[in-house]
Design brief:
By secondary structure, this protein is α/β, with parallel strands linked by helices. The protein is built from twelve helices and twelve strands.
Length: 302
């Protein structure tokens, strides 16, 4: 008689779970054998009023060596977070007692831990409100576990590197956040990341590479407003910033409805910085939501 599948005993098939969170492949043995836990994140707080989702996330995260706390209400979430401060929070917006935005505001009063919102709501304004309140990212239900894990990794990276990037390379551009200066390199090795081999095979930063004439470069002139907008985006790599967040940060609280200003300055930045402004590589638009700086493979600090 063939052996029963392991998961038939540990995670009973529940139609609601399959519809709202995971497909069947998420909980198979191959996926469960992966670890992929980030050193910066060891304790995760999962907040959702659906028992199937809490159970599925608890199993998937614990098997990857996370410590997991769960809460089914907003009040329980705030109490649990205060008792066991989390490194990252996964939060459903639709809770029975408190709105998810209220929970975000309560957490942001004392913690900077990344918050990833789960939302089954189709209205993008709910997500915008959550981002404005302090959430770092969102995942729309139904979702695959691997997508959530990827967003957790990205949020943890942002939390560890958002403020420690004095210089950022964007292709041939180097943005110096300390000197408030943008330069464009014209040398043959300008598109290579730091430490990559130069054209003659020697390391780009070696004496042999430095022996020739230095590559020509030019300053890219930005207005103060353009610079401020670019700086806010670059200091939040990969993070979706709502229009309201950017307007308040760059122009001030009185400009919350000046979306036209934001579109104009984003277009100007793309013309100055993107190789193809019509198909931006780094300064991306999330329709109806906001904007995101998406680092490329060689966008690390020089």
């Amino acid at each position: 008689m063939p052996a029963e599948p392991v998961l038939a005993e540990t995670v009973p098939a529940e139609p609601v779970l399959a519809e709202t969170v995971l497909d069947e492949t998420v909980l198979d043995e191959t996926v469960l054998d992966e670890t992929g836990r980030l050193d910066r994140v060891t304790r995760v707080l999962v907040v959702d009023d659906e028992p199937q989702i809490l159970r599925a996330l608890r199993i998937n995260l614990r098997v990857r060596s996370y410590e997991v706390d769960t809460a089914a209400t907003g009040a329980q979430a705030l109490e649990t977070a205060a008792r066991h401060p989390p490194d990252l929070v996964i939060l459903d917006l639709g809770l029975p007692d408190l709105d998810g935005v209220e929970v975000i505001a309560g957490l942001r009063g004392w913690t900077t831990a990344p918050i990833i919102v789960l939302s089954g709501r189709a209205d993008s304004m709910d997500k915008v409100e959550a981002l404005d309140a302090g959430a770092d990212d969102y995942v729309t239900k139904p979702f695959a576990m691997e997508e959530l894990l990827a967003r957790m990794r990205a949020a943890a990276r942002r939390a560890g590197t958002a403020d420690d990037q004095p210089r950022v390379r964007l292709g041939r551009l180097v943005v110096d956040l300390t000197a408030k200066r943008v330069t464009r390199d014209h040398g043959p090795a300008a598109d290579l990341p730091a430490g990559s081999p130069a054209a003659d095979g020697s390391p780009a930063d070696s004496p042999a590479a430095a022996a020739g004439s230095p590559p020509a470069s030019e300053d890219v002139r930005l207005t103060p407003t353009e610079w401020h907008l670019l700086e806010v985006l670059l200091r939040n790599p990969g993070k979706l910033l709502s229009q309201r967040q950017l307007l308040a940060e760059v122009w001030g609280p009185g400009y919350a409805d000046a979306a036209g200003n934001l579109r104009l300055y984003m277009a100007q930045l793309r013309r100055k910085l993107e190789p193809d402004p019509a198909r931006p590589r780094w300064l991306l638009t999330e329709p109806g939501m906001g904007y995101r700086y998406q680092p490329g493979p060689y966008a690390a600090t020089p």
